[in-house]
Amino acid sequence: MSGNACVVFDPSLTDYDFGAGHPMAPIRVDLTMRLATDLGLVGGSALATVPAPMASDELLATVHDPAYLAAVEEIGKDPYRVDEEHGLGTADNPTFEGMHQASAHIVGATVEAARRVWTGEALHAANVSGGLHHAMPGKASGFCVYNDVAVGIRWLLDHGAQRVAYVDVDVHHGDGVERIFYDDPRVLTISLHETGQMLFPGTGFPKDVGGPGAEGSAVNVALPPGTSDAGWLRAFHAVVPPLLREFAPDILVTQQGCDSHIEDPLAHLMLTVDGQRASYLALHDLAHELCGGRWLATGGGGYAVVDVVPRAWAHLLGIVGGMPVDPLTPTPEGWREHIRSLLGRTAPMRMTDGRLPAYRDWSEGYDPSVWLDRAIHATREAVFPLNGLDPMP
């Protein structure tokens, strides 16, 4: 049972738009919300939609450097300039008019979701436009201008949270959030991602365990390319639940990037929508088990904007709202017709990729000849003892 829940959204959040041809197409958020609405997951007596406020400069400055905020605001008035010092105007982070306002709006949405959960107005809250986990205090990175997740976590700490757990399932390492809280033992960051040996941002290895006084608070599972549902879920369950149980968080914050899917064009993992759905269910259950259900879920990466993102995040919103979607559910004809008329594309027919997620539990044995098992073991060996846990199965 999920209890009262909400999604923070208004259509202007899609103003976060790097332009035609950029992988981070804002239509993915619009298609997600349309699908969730057509499925009856949002609106009416289902998941409530609440407006997204604009984050103030004061709020942004709890994480970001004032000079960087000024640079983003200025370049958004003249978007044909390049500011390499602040990572603006690059191929990854092209500038656009109103960049500061659009980015601050996403931060405001995540902080509003955090506020509603922390104050008890909602048990769960989501912001699918958020999850911009690469942004650094003074630099844009990886399609991320402001780090809404980090500002949300900072807000929680500033308003009484003693222990915040952050789990990032994006295919890319959650480097910005990790770096911002690397020396803070109150924040446990866990990132499961394709190894940085193969993929941007090239970081996030088992040896990266947290700074002085916070050793064991940063956790990285660097997965081999080609990892599919069974391997990914094996890694998740071998690492995430034991650490969360030991940490005993006040609230769970998650980044639900769905670019781990086999059809995503920017990475090399091989999950299905069904495997991703299984991870959402597991995180939901852990929130209820460990922190009274307090769960803030954000979006993140995901660049198969028709075939994957809307279905993955509609499943997420269904779980947030206490109305999980049966994977065999057909996608609504109206939603498919909208995609045909708008994009000339054929949309998926069902909410499943036809897989039944299953995995071999870590307790059943570790095979050092398998890259995946070596990756899991390396993470457990690096951080479990620092958290008072036995790294062996």
Structure characterization notes:
The chain is α/β, with parallel strands linked by helices. It has a single domain, classed as Histone deacetylase domain (Arginase, Chain A, 3-Layer(aba) Sandwich), CATH 3.40.800.20. Helices cover 35% and strands 10% of the residues. It has eleven helices and eight strands. It has helices spanning 27-38, 57-60, 66-75, 99-119, 148-158, 175-180, 229-247, 273-290, 309-320, 333-343, 371-383, and strands at residues 5-8, 48-50, 124-127, 164-168, 187-194, 218-223, 251-255, 295-298. An eight-stranded parallel beta sheet has the order 2-1-3-8-7-4-5-6, with helices on both faces. β4, α6 and β5 (187-194) form a beta-alpha-beta unit. α8 (273-290) runs parallel beside α9 (309-320). The protein is globular, with a radius of gyration of 19 Å. The two termini are 31 Å apart. The mean pLDDT is 97. This is Acetoin utilization protein AcuC.
Largest sheet: 8 strands, parallel
Q: Percent range for helical residues?
A: 25-40%
Gyration radius over CA: 19 Å
CATH class: Alpha Beta
CATH-derived topology:
Arginase, Chain A
Low-confidence stretches: none
Strand order of the largest sheet: 2-1-3-8-7-4-5-6
* Secondary-structure element string: EHEHHHEHEHEEHEHEHHH
What is the CATH architecture term? 3-Layer(aba) Sandwich
Q: What percent of residues are in strands?
A: 5-15%
> Domains counted in the coordinates: how many?
1
The tally of beta strands, per DSSP, is 8
How many DSSP H or I helices?
Answer: 11
Taken from the alpha-carbon principal axes, the silhouette is: globular
Distance between the termini: 31 Å
Mean pLDDT: 97
CATH superfamily: Histone deacetylase domain
Computed structural class = alpha/beta
